[in-house]
């Protein structure tokens, strides 16, 4: 049986959690929210290791 089914659109879970470095606010977004709406701090992606 040929392997003809490609699962190429695995976009069911493309969002990440971002945490504000200043106030700790957590937001879920597809891309970095930029500035925290609460304090204007920077977000970092919680799914990635922070250096
Ligand atoms: Zn904040």
From TrEMBL:
Pfam families: DUF7129 (PF23455). SUPFAM superfamilies: Rubredoxin-like (SSF57802). InterPro entries: DUF7129. Residues 15-47 form the DUF7129 domain. Signal peptide: none annotated. This is DUF7129 domain-containing protein.
